[in-house]
């Protein structure tokens, strides 16, 4: 299997626009139970808060015939994700899952604060121990999906979607890659760094070259790119150009060496570094922060490539990008063609709550909470 397959940039743009539209129209098919790899200890209560386990034991002993409805909600405008995973969890580990009636929204649905996204009705002892796990699934997946959606939205200008590549492999525990990759896909990223990130939605990882490859060739980015191209001749030539902290010089060297074969260059300048361009052109310094990947540097790179006839070479940026920085770049019309983002997309900033709100067909909930019916919920088949 090839390592980190590169994708053709214009193809990504068109594909992403189509996929985002499909997701927002709620046309993404539900994932099946076979998609997920759960730890079998979930069924033993190993991952459940002990008070839930004890409550299930008490319910079984004293109130075995009670039927409760538990509803789940959160407090933000968000893009929902994790419902398929939560449903699969219920079907896999709930006691007598066919005794439960489940209604749910779909992954990719836009949701409002306090909107009910999932309800479970049945004997409490059959599913109550899963409450905290479901909260965690929905919270993490929805956070990532919403983060990516906001970034993708910021990178969509005049109806054209600039690709957002999910590069979160180094910012999180590897066991989370499949779920976070799927959540990123739901949010609007259809290009991701590892195969695991693509596992649930059926694609392969993509990428260019790391700094480590250039280091092996003693900092010679052209030699590294040639070795890459000779090893993967069917891949587009997309080269990392900040290794020597001289992105314009190295981009032009690559363009001279590869000509039309050079599809894109990626700039990943450290946020505590100032590119050599500004030392060569101090007159271009002004009231802005020249460190890292900044607008002035990208404008200068685009100008240098165009002046020598390399209009076809696209520019990808990464390192420290989030929604606010992308918005700033797009407002300034910085000539970026793709964004690579990692850490900022993995912030878990949305929390879900599960509440018992109906008991034996009658309203019964803690003060301040009540049953919130939602006509958008769909019944989940057994």
TrEMBL record:
<dbReference type="InterPro" id="IPR037128">
    <property type="entry name" value="Quinolinate_PRibosylTase_N_sf"/>
</dbReference>
<keyword id="KW-0436">Ligase</keyword>
<dbReference type="InterPro" id="IPR053190">
    <property type="entry name" value="NAPRTase-like"/>
</dbReference>
<keyword id="KW-0808">Transferase</keyword>
<keyword id="KW-0328">Glycosyltransferase</keyword>
<dbReference type="InterPro" id="IPR036068">
    <property type="entry name" value="Nicotinate_pribotase-like_C"/>
</dbReference>
<protein>
    <recommendedName>
        <fullName>nicotinate phosphoribosyltransferase</fullName>
        <ecNumber>6.3.4.21</ecNumber>
    </recommendedName>
</protein>
<comment type="pathway">
    <text>Cofactor biosynthesis; NAD(+) biosynthesis; nicotinate D-ribonucleotide from nicotinate: step 1/1.</text>
</comment>
<dbReference type="InterPro" id="IPR013785">
    <property type="entry name" value="Aldolase_TIM"/>
</dbReference>
<keyword id="KW-0597">Phosphoprotein</keyword>
<dbReference type="GO" id="GO:0004514">
    <property type="term" value="F:nicotinate-nucleotide diphosphorylase (carboxylating) activity"/>
</dbReference>
<dbReference type="GO" id="GO:0009435">
    <property type="term" value="P:NAD+ biosynthetic process"/>
</dbReference>
<dbReference type="GO" id="GO:0004516">
    <property type="term" value="F:nicotinate phosphoribosyltransferase activity"/>
</dbReference>
<dbReference type="InterPro" id="IPR035809">
    <property type="entry name" value="NAPRTase_arc-type"/>
</dbReference>
<dbReference type="InterPro" id="IPR007229">
    <property type="entry name" value="Nic_PRibTrfase-Fam"/>
</dbReference>
<feature type="domain" description="Quinolinate phosphoribosyl transferase N-terminal">
    <location>
        <begin position="63"/>
        <end position="140"/>
    </location>
</feature>
<dbReference type="Pfam" id="PF02749">
    <property type="entry name" value="QRPTase_N"/>
</dbReference>
<dbReference type="InterPro" id="IPR022412">
    <property type="entry name" value="Quinolinate_PRibosylTrfase_N"/>
</dbReference>
<keyword id="KW-0662">Pyridine nucleotide biosynthesis</keyword>
